[in-house]
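Work package 3, deliverable 3.1, input record:
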Amino acid sequence: MPAKGIAILGSGIFATEAHLPAIATLGDAIELKAVYSRSNKSASTFARSAQDILKLSHALDVYHDEDPAASLDVLLARSDIAAVIVVLPITVQPKVILKALAAGKHVLSEKPVAPDVSQGRALIQEYESKYKSRGLVWRVAENFEAEPGYRAARRAIEDGKIGKVAFYNACVVNYIDENSKWYNTPWRTVPDYQGGFLLDGGVHTIASLRVVLPSALQTVSAFASLAKDILPPQDTINAIVRNVDGSHGLVELTWGAPTVTRAKQAGNNITVTGTEGWLEITRANGVMRIAVHTITRDKDGKSTGETEEVIEEKEVGIQREIESFLRATDGSDDGVDDPRSTLVDVAFIEAALNSNGAPVDLVALAKV
Amino acid sequence: MPAKGIAILGSGIFATEAHLPAIATLGDAIELKAVYSRSNKSASTFARSAQDILKLSHALDVYHDEDPAASLDVLLARSDIAAVIVVLPITVQPKVILKALAAGKHVLSEKPVAPDVSQGRALIQEYESKYKSRGLVWRVAENFEAEPGYRAARRAIEDGKIGKVAFYNACVVNYIDENSKWYNTPWRTVPDYQGGFLLDGGVHTIASLRVVLPSALQTVSAFASLAKDILPPQDTINAIVRNVDGSHGLVELTWGAPTVTRAKQAGNNITVTGTEGWLEITRANGVMRIAVHTITRDKDGKSTGETEEVIEEKEVGIQREIESFLRATDGSDDGVDDPRSTLVDVAFIEAALNSNGAPVDLVALAKV
């Protein structure tokens, strides 16, 4: 039986702006029944948005910490709720994930898998030893494994369109000021987890590299620092990475752009360069664009120029990952969003923050 | 007395296409009298170009290895030649520099200072202990220390226009194929020195960073590899660098772009990002363009936006460095192009080629 009856735990920006529209596209496949937030006000506001966006005939049931009769435990005791989507602040996630699993619910939790590798490893071990065997599904959401654009880029590489991967770049330069809606999330303004925005946002970049590159990330060396006072503890990582197949790349992550134009100039993108071509992945207006350039050769193998193929895919990763999660709860597991594979995203950020220029073995660090 | 009487040792592409036009701009300040090349044909061709470009009434004297009566030693024995410009293949340079110094000539030699740090260090030690005290000048050319554009970028930073330097990027992505004039220089096609194009061309990038950044490069960690079979031993470096002041940056050097568009997409440039703004240096059509973006603030210090100032400077570094060299031979040394300071450019490439992801102390490596 698929987990039709769903509760969402967390009612912040991402739950409202990303999850609700994604759930709306899924129609009858999912029935969002309840919302939990620490505050009554936030949960209630979300419930109204949900009723509106999902065109529900009646409001969501609202749970929060202000009334013991409407607590998270009460929500988790409901038998008509088979699964929860957890979209809470990073440090709150692990204990809520465990609580939900203990209550017998399937869990789709927002990235990162945990605030640090050690907690992530412990969480995965507990899940696998105690809950997986009981048929409970736990997956880590929003890590681009289900995103059609990144998957298309991976296929282009696997099809040999750029030859053997030689080197790559991933560049994310963001401008954040005191007015940013993300900055104004209380838990982001004073982060109680390593890296601040670098962990919260940086895991996306590493996840996309993990999806796009055919070979696993193996070693990272990095320097990390704080460029912008309002974004402690750190906002910038300059990293080099080597993959198992010997290819290597540069990863630039910063939320510390001093002005808007610095972020514009960088034009956040991923390029992968191979022996027979290269590809560039850019994102704009909800569409991912992959430009694949391939060397053309004459019959003697001499290069005669290049072709360009453009692949465009709508960004529907959240919708797809919820669909995949629902199928998994119905016994049809496609392996997407497995917590084990997402641990390397956290490992990368943790390694980069602590590297101080020295190489860190990501495979060893992310080993469960 | 300034060294008016000059010989040029080497008659390749760069001597013809860069040095001759630069010398032409200097008028009476310099008198190019002779050329030496290993082959008579190459030296004679250069002599004709020189007569044409410099509008000389009589041809240069031609020296080469094919006739003992016209050897380099014979050239260096001439008392009317006070200085030589050495533009020979990388591995030939050190012994020719020493030979010229031993003959009592001032020397302006092309970068890199030497094929590797060990030879560079030995060369500098020998110069300083035996020849500097006799008043002979030796400088390392074409390392951008005299380039007005890079100097203007440095001044903008020193003037505080971007605040404290936080992080930076230097990106050089080149497309080279079998038809490239640079590839078809015999000594570049089968390089007998570390790094191939990475040393030959990469030292330029490191030199420009050295000129632009107010703080010295201290530590580099890198991965190096060969992306394009025709460019052994290596053609690609991905590096992270940390400076003495704690700022850090990414350096991407490759001659292994698989197609022309990959190089175009990269748009070779340097960006320096600070706490109060950022600047970008780009080069096109002989002009260096520095766009300086500075945060504007209201009276309470709150950011209100940004200004952009564009500085454009013609690329005249080679002319300027020859002028500076001539002044130095006349006893007025401005410190530009000192061999000691250029040793770090070679040290960077050598460190990056051997780093394998581990940090290398550039200050220690480049210590004479």
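Chain B has two domains: 5-143, 148-318+346-365.
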